[in-house]
Structure formats: C-alpha cells, structure tokens
Design goal:
five-stranded mixed beta sheet; 6 helices
Length: 231
Amino acid sequence: MEIKKSPKADLERGKGLSLLMGFVVGLAVLFVSFEWTSTEVTVATEKDQVQDVIAEEEIEITRPENTPPPPPPPAAPVVAEELNIVEDDVELEQQEIVSSEDDATVAQQETFVAAPVVEEEEEEEAQQIFTVVEKQPEFPGGTAELMKFLSKNIKYPVIAQENGIQGRVVCSFVVNRDGSIVDIQVMRGVDPALDKEAVRVIGTMPKWKPGEQRGKPVRVRFILPVQFRLQ
C-alpha cells in the first residue's frame, strides 16, 4: 500500500525561501551600519602652509658684531745723535793709555814649580812581591840562629804527642821592605795542631834583613819548612 504525504504537512517545502530571506536581511543591516558611521578628516590647506613658512621667515637672525682691531703700539722715540764738529786747527789733548800688560813693574812674575815626578817603577817594586831576587832576605844571625829560634820557641802540641804525629810543615810568608813578617800561609800541612803551631812560631819571629833587587829593598816571599820530630 503506497503512503501519500499531505502538502501541508511537508516541512522541507519553505526551508530554502527562509534561508534566502535571512541573507537579504543581514546584508541590509550591514549596509545601513556602514552608511551611519562617519570619520572626521582634517585637510591642511595651502593657507595654513603659507602661514608656517611666514612664521619661520620672521625669526630674527643674530650675527656677531665685528670687533675693531686693537690700536698699534706707540712708536719708539727716535733719539737724534749729536755730532760735535771740531775744526781742523784745534789741537786735542792726547791721553796715553797704559795697561798693566805694558807696565813691566806691575806685572807679576809667577814662579813655575814642577810637580814632583814619581817613578812608576819604584811604586811597582814597592807593591810587587818577588820570589827570586839578587839578595834573599835573611834571619838576624843567619840560618843557624833561625834553627835555634825555632827549636827554642816551638811547643809540641800535646794531642800530637799522644797520637804520635810528627812531620814537616812547609810554610810561606812575605818579608816586607822593613823586614816585618806578613801573610803567613801553610803550603803543605801534616796535622791541624802542628800546622797551627808552625804559623804561631813564624809570627813571633823578629824582623829579618829584607831582600834586595838592584840595590833597593823589596818585598820577597820566603818558604820555610818547620820540622816536628818526637824524641
């Protein structure tokens, strides 16, 4: 059995027309809203621009004043030279000019004193220490007296005696030009105790006869062995 619908009961029949009417109404409302909105626009005219330019031109322009240059300094006074004109037939008094250089009586005579000449060779010989000279330095009384002096004044160190230490200590010293003994050194030692005693004894010796070179006393280094022997 076919079912038939009544045209009055069809709901889809007026749908398209309603949609079209809604679009028309919306556009009309939008158009009316644009027409009612007004914007205030200010347009600058040529008259306003001309007035601005005139205002700028009326600004006063200041210029620096020209300062006059300072006055020139006053000129120095001119002194006129006075010339005394003397006639040729007038005799002038002649004045003699006498200087101390021309007057022999006033001149001072300086006596030249020559500086003392110091012989360099003598100074060098005074400072130089010789090892070999024409005449060797000598103990007062000779070598025999020197041996007696050493044997009499040497004190054998006790510690060396207890340990049985003996030997020969070789010493050197300088005999000055006045015969004094200086710069005592141990060239070859045996024991510290014996070395010290040898230096002490040599330092107590009296002045020697100085050595000579070309007939003049000089400083000479002398070598002396000191023998330590236990009996």
